[in-house]
Amino acid sequence: MEIAELGEFGLIRRLTEDIKPENPSTVKGVGDDCAVLDYGGPNRVLVTTDMLMEGVHFDLQYTPLRHLGWKSVIVNLSDIYAMNGMPRQVTVSLALSKRFSVEDVEELYAGMQLACQAHHVDLVGGDTTSSLTGLAISITAIGEAKAEDIVLRSGAQPNDLVCVSGNLGAAYMGLQLLEREKSVYYQQLREAGDKKDEVQFQPDFSGREYLLERQLKPEARRDIIKRLRQAGIHPTAMMDISDGLSSELMHICTQSHTGCRVYEERLPLDYQTAVMAEELNMNVSTCALNGGEDYELLFTVPLTFNDQVSQLEDVKVIGYITKPELGCALITRDGQEFELKAQGWQPEGLRPKD
Amino acid sequence: MEIAELGEFGLIRRLTEDIKPENPSTVKGVGDDCAVLDYGGPNRVLVTTDMLMEGVHFDLQYTPLRHLGWKSVIVNLSDIYAMNGMPRQVTVSLALSKRFSVEDVEELYAGMQLACQAHHVDLVGGDTTSSLTGLAISITAIGEAKAEDIVLRSGAQPNDLVCVSGNLGAAYMGLQLLEREKSVYYQQLREAGDKKDEVQFQPDFSGREYLLERQLKPEARRDIIKRLRQAGIHPTAMMDISDGLSSELMHICTQSHTGCRVYEERLPLDYQTAVMAEELNMNVSTCALNGGEDYELLFTVPLTFNDQVSQLEDVKVIGYITKPELGCALITRDGQEFELKAQGWQPEGLRPKD
User: Fold this and answer.
1) What domains does chain A contain, in order, with CATH numbers?
2) Which of A6, A57, A129 sits opposite B102 (nearest CB)?
3) What is the CA radius of gyration of chain B?
4) Chain A residues with CB inside 8 Å of B106's CB?
5) Cβ contact, residue pair B138, A138, below 8 Å
6) What residues contact residue A92 under an 8 Å CB cut-off, 6+ apart?
7) Complex ipTM, two decimals?
8) Nearest CA of chain A to the CA of B127: how many Å?
9) pLDDT, tens digit, for every residue of A183-235?
10) Prediction pTM value
């Protein structure tokens, strides 16, 4: 059977459904942003891991190594925050092809160190090896949270409010922009023929800096976790948005045995995202729903927290949780309901469906 | 600067020398088989990670996926045992190319599960993604040990005995055997020309099963850790042998600020290893010193434990620790001293030097 038939989530389900933890220190295994472990201390230990492959997750033609280092750490820390925890350590494994110089690896590491410093995380180990092909980066983050503070994907209840931090779709628009400029460059190279060496290409990113930053140097929302705590808000379910809002909403609803309604008009969008989508003739709501790599936090809170959550800076209520039989749907500006779809990765890379 | 100029260990030193942990939960970072963390429980938490890349660490032409899954978990558990700890959890990240079917991934996972079950370890998470090129496997193992039980690489003292479990060089001889049969097969294919499809190749492994097993299905020495504990022996330094005895001895001596003397005549060898080395016209001691992938335990104990350690099943005393100014040397059968050399990985793969 081809993996594409099952998809990422189907494959993971199939591989892990028979796993039965036998250690008392394993509180929660596969199925959330992090595993939850109990090593007898005052706090639970959280563990998460992510792998980034050249050509799938990043393109070194337009990704500075320092940014790549930053991002590869940040995407892991984001998973710790998504459990309402605080990250403390990371391990970093690198597989390097021959074309990497010592200076290249130092750049990559410098970006990782910056991310660690910004989030008060220690780099405590890893593995460095060679690769016959592209660069592979595998990072594991370790963090902690009080048992009662941990927020799983499975705690959403009907009538809870669905909230999201920041704005959506910008990282995906940044990717489109980088891909467009790359293809313009190759077009110029082709047209130049023998005079290839004379091509002086300057990509046009003016006024789009925010989109580039969201794609190349994303942030993990430590600030939101702190703000929620200060406001005394304990989400019922939470996860970070890496595959796209639509996909993550489906995870929360499946694991919480609920449905949901989110409003198109409430999807948080940056102005540059909207302009870029129009320029590329794409539906901006589709980008916000399926774009991915936002690393914003998606969470649900009881309706009674409506006032508190509405006052939170950089957080927006976009809908509500329903009974499971109502399914997961987007309510469009003209009042129509569209069923949400989960995507996960596709073998050919990220591509939102219309 | 090319990475080859620094080598693996030089590169890691350069990248990590400026790292200063800032979290109180970080007890020991980079530089040993595992990081040591203190999350306030009765035991310390141990974390280690290893990455295996197709074409560098394994060749799918002769490595059954089930064995590969087993081995990829075992090499991580071995690092936990090497701290005198017990492994409890692993996370597994896979990057899969298109040619993998669901059944292939299930085979790989089945091997991982077998290793987990044999060592009472839970698979608690991971990441599954696509790869444009070969298969990449990244595993992180988490374990625990009482603070006072942990054995670092840095505790060896002059006059300590140098001990090693099992025997050395067999995994490397297994690799040579597999590579030889592979090249015979390709030779036959070339000679067959148009009649390639008629080639009925049967590799000749008779009487060499032990070497194959050591290469394809290594074990992590949980039994030795338990035996040491039962015998009341607390090693002063320990690590597992992945890169080869010579390289690992250098690590212990460098980090303990000592030298060492090991005796060629005491290197533990299996009969099949010796026969295979002779057949390939290789020096069997070189294979034992530099072959790698043995996953045996190398440790030092105070001289006062001489009687206890000599009685331990499957453990052999091979030499002793000296003052640092004496350096690290092998004493050959005819009484000559040869300086030991550390190897680490080479860009072109494992290859012992004569």
Assistant:
1) 3-149 (3.30.1330.10), 153-175+211-339 (3.90.650.10)
2) A6
3) 21
4) 14-15
5) yes
6) A72, A73, A109, A112, A123, A125, A126, A137, A138, A139
7) 0.92
8) 6
9) 999 888 888 888 888 888 888 888 899 999 999 999 999 999 999 999 999 99
10) 0.93
